Amino acid sequence: MENEIIQVVSAILSLKPSSEGVLVEAGSYKGGSTAKLSLAARIAKRKLVVFDSFEGIPEHREVQGKNIFGGNAYFPPGSYAGSLEEVSNNVKRFGAIEVCQFRKGWFKDTLSGFHVPVGVVYIDVDLESSTRTCIKYLYPLLITGGTLFSQDGHLPWVIKILNDNDFWKKEVGCQKPPRMAGLGKRKLVIIRKD
Questions:
Q1: CA dist 168 to 7, 110, 153, Å?
Q2: Is the pLDDT of residue 63 over 90?
Q3: 48, 55, 160, 191 — which has fewest CB within 10 A?
Q4: How many CB atoms lie within 10 A of CB 18?
């Protein structure tokens, strides 16, 4: 949605030019959001690192059903697949490919070796397990004042993990969950790091 991507772009453009940190997108599908975020990255003079399997949703056994608005929310393995070639071609056509770095593979494999400070994170990964992995590895890399956006705040299984104090403490390393706006009320959840 336009208003959602505008919020992410606004966070990118609000980063202090003197602050460190790349931008990260986890879950690119066909590259629509990647193209938009790459344009903001170019303006902000930052790199956009894009993590995706480029093979769609991974195999999983998660029980899914309805979102908080009553709509169907089922993500079968292989759905939402956009090949790396397709995504990069879309970014070349509509965005700024020169600021992008693509990391192909499953999140558990690619994020575990990523150790770069991050200014803004945008995740749209649909599964509880993928959300857990992305936040576990990316939230600790956020700079103070950085923002993590989850596009899945309307999914009951994502709401559950984001509300789980033990997850934040034991897996992410936070004494308490961070401030969140929108969880359980809308799709886009905003998590700021103080």
A1: 24, 21, 16
A2: no
A3: 160
A4: 5
Q: Which H or E element spans position 88?
A: helix 84-94
For residue 86, give its domain range: 2-12+20-192
Counted domains in the chain: 1
> Rounded to the nearest 5 degrees, what angle is found at the Cα of 67, between the Cα atoms of 61 and 70?
130
CATH of the domain at 182: 3.40.50.150
Rounded distance between C-alpha atoms, residue 142 and residue 121, angstroms? 8
Residue with tokens 């403490």: 169
Q: Smallest Cα–Cα separation from 122: which of 53, 189, 194, 46?
A: 189
**pLDDT tens-digit profile of 86-113?**
999 999 999 999 999 999 999 999 999 9
CA quadruple 159, 114, 112, 167: dihedral, nearest 10 = -30
Indicate the pTM of the whole model.
Answer: 0.96
For residue 42, give both structure tokens. Answer: 């170019």
Q: What is the mean pLDDT of residues 127-140?
A: 97
Residues contacting residue 132 through CB under 8 Å, at least 6 positions apart:
161, 167, 171
Q: For Cα atoms 192, 94, 189, give the angle at the middle one, nearest 5 degrees.
A: 20
